[in-house]
Amino acid sequence: MAERSPETDVVDYRAAEQLLAARDPSGAVQLLDPLVEAHPEKVSPRLLRARAYFMSARLRAAEADFRTVVEREPDNAYAHFALARTLERAGGDPDEVRRHFRLAAALDPRPDFVDAAGFEE
User: Fold this and answer.
1) Could you read off the pLDDT of 10-22 as tens digits, one per residue?
2) Global pTM exceeds 0.85
3) How far apart are CA 22 and CA 112, in angstroms?
4) All domains in the chain, ordered by first residue
């Protein structure tokens, strides 16, 4: 693999964001894979790649990346919410889905997080 520079990393990350916004998750993953490989400790490229995997229905890969983000940043409300959505879409354990939705809502009481948490149920 060619050596990456910080500038290349930023350009690739921003381009991947644009591809995701343009509904091209596969293109985003192609840019993010080498970035995650080069910097496995960084959360932001992994989180963006997880979103791209989710958008392309690669749910196992999305789940793995979202789990890594949640492990490294247990206070990341969005990662808990996205992991819950991924598990829900994949037919995962309803208790685990609910737990991650509730953690997301507890960490950030955004209306969509609170609605998904189902505290009233």
Assistant:
1) 999 999 999 999 9
2) yes
3) 23
4) 6-115 (1.25.40.10)
